[in-house]
Design brief:
2 copies of one chain form a homodimer. In chain A, 35% of the residues lie in helices and 18% in strands. The first copy, chain A, is an alpha+beta fold. In chain A, the strands form 5 sheets. A 7-stranded antiparallel beta sheet of chain A has the order 13-12-1-5-3-19-20. In chain A, strand 12 and strand 13 (356-357) form a beta hairpin. Chain A is elongated, with a radius of gyration of 28 Å. Chains A and B meet through helix 1, helix 2, helix 4, helix 7 and helix 8 of A and helix 1, helix 2, helix 4, helix 7 and helix 8 of B.
Chain lengths: 491, 491
């Protein structure tokens, strides 16, 4: 398998970023002679986040990066030896040392796809031992990425297409890499960029930013600019002394507004002058509060305005209201930490081993899994609108457009019939036996795909509060398999 | 400055893991000729998290690791050049290339200390440009670490000292490094260990774990163990065929319990046999639900029981109730993502520059900062109980035990007097001009210190719901400085 070029990829998620029980289970499989048995896992979520009816799939690029670099180093194996029972056979550690993902195949929803409960975001197949070890890192990489992308998509739906949305929550993120993930996937979900420089450098996210309060606070007004002279923007004509200009204008503006010339703070003014001298083509003032209408100065209404400070869905809805003069909205904590639901709760479940379907039997119907190696399709109406998603056994022929299908919607007791005008396969083969099958789309392409996907969802499903639930249905054969395995299992 | 040995340190938080406006402000300071001006920032929070009255300080070890490795590489500077204005002087980038933390001094609360609103967790002083650039990464490293440690401490208070608490939320963490941070600092806050292997390898957190459902699901009952023979634990006597033994016992147990021999699932049994063969000295069964009392088998009550599954503060309180037979409690999402409040909201504020105190003047009294280079002390009663924390100017003499002090509690309009029996300085000098002054305590030492610190807090402040707020007060001189600067500023 080709080595990963990005050194950061390996550091962010290493093979030992996993739960110890994955390693103990690996030993259990190995001792039972089952390490190489063919197995398939599915990664999915059970409920859409934030009370909505959709999620965006994301994180695949990090998973692929992780799989391609997956290799236990000597120090990793030695550490595992130190925490596993002392009588563990050296041959087991030899097995671990030789482990890579060259036997692993991954099918997945393209990043930016709409994802619904129970539909696999990832299907991972390969030798039982290694695909078991992948559980925790893949969950960690997909869950939060998809949560963030979905959160960003909701905020974009609220803001509408025109407002510029900037993610600026790095300082509030749950750990440094949480910040990098958040910046990357909020962009995928529909933001315009981030303040996070590393996300620009490593992931190509557009970065933006101007100044913060400490810059303003750092000036007292006693500072003397080393060079207060500013050339005209056009590049011709004499340079002007900006600091002196500001003093002249200050008097005129204060007189016009009926303020005393001492009222504006000299430190604030010195900071703005210093900033304007440093960024003559990208000046930005910074105010704690603003009111462009307070002073009845009409041209102020044409100044682009950026706002930030604890903006959540409700506050954003107010800012996005028609006629709002705000142009750019910076959002931190509420996009990055997803306070309304800080985890997506993805699971990674065994669906087949040794070619036989497997199903988790439990008294809790929500925790029951769907057995067997599966395919997934999206059925569409004649107008291109989404009807429902279908899960069926991999060996079944794909649904045909124009043909009537009998299906079992999840959670319903009755079957239904559907005649789709179009059928789209949902899962693509990205990695086959450790080899990348096609280049992943760029982050910007996935971002565009996310917006396209969302535009095809009906308003009833796209609605953020109390939406209609989107249906996921089983083929008759898959439903029959579920019934058969359920009958075999405990009560 | 000595190079950082841990390669992971550099990868997790690099210099460009910062907001772009830190870089634009750096350029602003540089053009204003102020890059080298002496500045001091304080990192603190304004409100205790989770509705409690305390927080635990954490994250210092990551900050020190970050500072020691801080150095912009060529690629970093080139990336900054690509996003800053094209006419930026090459000399600015030369300045960045030469930048390190050799001029930076850090005072901080030791990790595991009780922290209260407005008391600095970190004081960072050095050249204005570089200490400004440190803002975002330091906030990112301290905020989440302290949030997690505090969350873990609350869960420990609920569980009591006897239950074993295991963090197992890696799959739910906000990004891979979020998981590593959570595992590290939940241990510091009072957990016994984590399932996260990487936290064991890199940070020395005790790791634990047994098996998950996929192991059970992977067995059908048709598997034949390669070697079903088990030697006696004492090491003497003949080996027994465990698989055959289990079948014999199954019949006897079923007869005793009045169950049909077909009722127990053969796959589950095969999985447990395989696990027992792999871990004869550390067998653990795995059940979806359990009831040791259902079958009236007295010895079952002596089996150690571990539970997990969506355990939050309320559920933990039920499990911790007297007489609960649970021994080990695994907690995932609710310790790692802190759903009740997923960010601590620390801020990093300029308090002095060029030897002059600075204060952010704002209409929002909560956002007003405390000016000047400060010292912080904890005043204690004769019985060692905590009375209050005092902030004063660095140049003031420390409060003396037994002497009456006049203080201004924050948020109060009146001063008060206190006569402490003991006085403890809170902030320690860890890094002076880039040099580590003393080794940081180990993670286990910080963990013990956290428990000691919590034990000295009065029950009224330690209470998790509606606690009494712990007082932080200003010295008379600091209060006078605040009043003076407030009078100078805008209305």
């Amino acid at each position: 398998m080709a080595a990963e070029q990005d050194p950061e990829g390996r550091a962010a998620a290493r093979p030992l970023l996993t739960d110890l029980y994955q390693a103990t289970m690996a030993l259990g499989y190995w001792r039972a002679g089952r390490a190489q048995e063919a197995a398939e896992f599915e990664l999915f979520f059970r409920r859409c986040p934030f009370g909505g009816a959709f999620a965006l799939a994301a994180g695949l690029r990090d998973c692929v990066r992780f799989l391609r670099a997956f290799r236990l180093r000597d120090a990793d194996v030695q550490f595992l030896a130190s925490v596993l029972p002392p009588d563990t056979e050296p041959a087991f550690f030899e097995h671990l040392r030789a482990l890579d993902c060259s036997g692993v195949t991954v099918r997945a929803l393209p990043e930016g796809s709409l994802a619904f409960p129970g539909v696999p975001l990832l299907q991972v197949s390969g030798p039982l031992l290694v695909v078991q070890l992948l559980e925790t890192p893949l969950l960690c990489l997909v869950s939060y990425a998809s949560l963030i992308a979905t959160n960003a998509a909701r905020l974009r739906l609220i803001a509408g297409p025109e407002k510029r949305l900037l993610e600026m929550g790095l300082r509030r993120a749950q750990g440094p890499d949480g910040g990098l993930t958040a910046s990357t996937y909020s962009y995928l979900g529909g933001f315009d960029g981030s303040s996070n420089v590393l996300a620009g450098q490593l992931r190509g996210v557009p970065v933006a930013g101007t100044l913060a309060h400490s810059f303003v606070t750092s000036f007292s007004g006693a500072e003397v600019p080393p060079d207060p002279m500013l050339a005209p923007a056009a590049g011709q004509g004499p340079r002007v002394d900006l600091a002196a200009c500001v003093e002249v204008w200050l008097e005129r503006v204060c007189a016009h507004l009926g303020l005393g010339a001492q009222e504006p703070h000299p430190g604030e003014r010195a900071a703005f002058v210093a900033y304007a001298l440093a960024f003559p083509r990208a000046f930005q003032g910074l105010l704690d509060t603003y009111s462009v209408r307070r002073f009845q100065v009409p041209w102020l209404a044409s100044v682009p305005i950026a706002v930030s400070n604890n903006i959540d869905e409700e506050e954003l809805a107010r800012l996005a209201q028609k006629g709002s003069e705000v142009d750019l909205i910076g959002i931190g904590t509420s996009v990055v930490t997803c306070p309304r639901q800080p985890s997506l709760g993805c699971v990674y479940k065994l669906v087949a081993v040794g070619g036989q379907p497997r199903m988790k039997l439990t008294e809790d119907p929500e925790k029951q899994t769907l057995p067997g190696s599966k395919a997934a399709f999206r059925l569409l109406g004649a107008d291109g609108s989404l009807l429902l998603d279908v899960l069926q056994l991999a060996e079944e022929p794909p649904p045909q457009a124009g043909q009537e299908l009998r299906l079992w919607p999840r959670g319903a007791r009755e079957s239904c019939t559907v005649r789709p005008a179009h059928v789209e396969p949902l899962l693509r083969l990205w990695v086959q036996q450790g080899q990348l099958c096609e280049p992943l789309p760029s982050l910007a392409e996935s971002r565009a795909f996310a917006q396209l996907s969302l535009s095809r969802l009906s308003p009833a499903h796209r609605r953020l509060e109390q939406p209609e639930q989107y249906q996921v249905a089983l083929s008759e054969k898959l439903q029959a398999l579920v019934n058969r395995l359920r009958a075999l299992g405990p009560q």
